[in-house]
Specification:
Length: 504
């Protein structure tokens, strides 16, 4: 039960507490709250976290500002790519099938880079978990960032935890209606702009903003904005910690990937127990008896956005945000006791201290080396592939029916469809040559082999005929190498196919 309720209202008899074991054997205490209808979750109370100040709260504010600044402002960044090219720095152009990221342009054929980025993201997440637990969840996850923003708005309008609890319990009045209306209006405004910013990544941002304001934007844009507005408002404003606990799979995956050397937020039991008031601890220490530093003030519980008690041990609900550390350090500072009763620590350290040993730190170990090596290897390969990739795509498709045509003079003709993709801004002119069949003649329908124009950022198909004089083919299938060269840049690219002829 929250601290404010413990002081302001008579506390009912607490339900029985069941001792459980965490993954590493630490005792954990959980309180079952049975609902009237017998459901485990129907009686779940709304969590109203207390605002705290400290190192981790400042880090979270800075990350929130940077992350939201990037999300909302990046669509308006400009990047010059050349005449006729889009000027938005980051743009996913669904009509043309292009993804622009500053100077990088990806085509649908470059989907391997997207797959590589997803693999890298997963490996980086594994590496973070192996080093510092759920640091992604506590600081960088969009659910955490937007929930922090919504909570900041709620505190600004309704006050801090005690004021919000009092407002929740108060009967409906004009003041309560006004406060709630203002809060939900701002929440909806933030959610609406979140959805609006998302669609700006799919079209020129200033142009789309004008069309949205004058109701000339495509219907899909309005549907996307309404959908993201609803999900942001519900997930960040109402569901909050329930998203992390019940909807997100990462807590369960993380529990299987962590080990005793990963840094997680832990309560240092050896120093904190037995819990008692500051006066009792002073009296016992004066008498030479043991007394813990924890004064059972519940500051860590009321500051937790997930509503858990970190003193019960490592729990799946904990997102490792560090706010309980700030809350506890504030109390320790007021009492004149050293900070760090709750902090980032490892289970190996906890066990070592319990046994009278020293600090055990193994950030560099086989699993972190493996993850770091995979991240560096895959990242380097992708970067090298991106830097050295060709800006021309070239494919050759042999006619299927007929495979060849015998001419009246005894010569053999083969037909091919050549597809060229120009991934650079500006029109390019290519020259085509064929190796593997000496004496053969190339003919480009509607053009010439020495000048095959392809417009900027587009794909062009050419019909190519290859003629072999009578008696020249000596094999029914002769390997050929088609070479495409850009005289302006010297870039060349090759493709393989065959010349078909009747069996001798």
């Amino acid at each position: 039960m929250p601290l404010a309720q413990r002081k302001d209202t008579p506390a009912p008899a607490p339900p029985p507490r069941a001792r459980a074991k965490t993954k590493f054997g630490a005792a954990a205490t959980r309180t079952a709250i049975p609902a009237a209808n017998g459901s485990l979750y129907a009686g779940r109370a709304k969590i109203q976290p207390q605002l705290v100040h400290g190192t981790y709260r400042r880090i979270k504010w800075m990350i929130l500002a940077v992350a939201l600044g990037i999300y909302y402002l990046v669509p308006f960044l400009r990047w010059h790519r050349g005449e006729g090219e889009p000027t938005q720095a980051v743009l996913l152009d669904l009509d043309k099938g292009r993804f622009y990221f500053f100077s990088v342009e990806l085509w649908p054929q470059d989907v391997t880079y997207v797959m590589g980025l997803l693999i890298l993201a997963a490996l980086i997440l594994f590496l973070k978990n192996a080093v510092a637990g759920r640091v992604w969840c506590g600081y960088l996850c969009p659910q955490t960032v937007w929930t922090d923003l919504f909570l900041a708005v709620e505190r600004l309008i309704e006050g801090d935890r005690r004021a919000r609890l009092k407002l929740d319990a108060a009967p409906w009045s004009m003041e309560k209606i006004a406060l709630r209306t203002m809060k939900h209006s701002i929440w909806l405004l933030i959610a609406w702009w979140t959805g609006g910013a998302w669609v700006l990544y799919f079209a020129d941002a200033p142009t789309l903003v004008g069309k949205l304001a004058t109701y000339q934007a495509p219907p899909a844009a309005y549907v996307a904005i309404l959908t993201l507005t609803a999900t942001t408002y519900l997930l960040a404003g109402h569901m909050r910690e329930q998203v992390c606990t019940y909807m997100c799979p990462w807590p369960r995956i993380q529990a299987a990937l962590t080990d005793e050397h990963a840094y997680n937020i832990l309560y240092r039991e050896a120093r904190g127990e037995p819990r008692m008031s500051a006066k009792q601890a002073t009296a016992l220490r004066a008498a030479g008896q043991p007394a813990g530093d924890c004064v059972d003030c519940f500051a860590c519980v009321t500051a937790c956005p997930a509503g858990i008690d970190i003193r019960d041990g490592l729990q799946m609900d904990c997102i490792q945000c560090g706010l309980c550390i700030d809350a506890c350090d504030t109390v320790m500072d007021r009492l004149g006791r050293p900070a760090g009763l709750i902090g980032y620590d490892t289970e190996a350290n906890r066990r070592s201290r319990a046994a009278g040993g020293g600090t055990v730190s193994r950030i560099v170990r086989p699993r972190t080396i493996l993850y770091a090596t995979l991240v560096a290897g895959i990242g380097s390969f992708m970067l090298y592939s991106l830097v050295t990739r060709s800006f021309t795509a070239f494919s050759v498709l042999h006619d299927r029916n007929p495979l060849f045509v015998t001419l009246s003079d005894g010569g053999i003709r083969n037909g091919y469809t050549i597809r060229l993709s120009n991934k650079r801004p500006g029109e390019r002119h290519y020259a085509l040559t064929v190796e593997g069949l000496a004496g053969a003649r190339i003919e480009v329908v509607g053009g010439t082999p020495g000048d095959m124009p392809v417009p900027s950022d587009s794909t062009q198909e050419f019909r190519v005929l290859l003629f072999a004089p009578a008696g020249l083919p000596t094999d029914p299938s002769i390997p050929l190498t088609f070479t495409l060269t850009d005289p302006a840049t010297g870039e060349s690219i090759r493709a393989q196919d065959h010349f078909k002829a009747p069996a001798p």
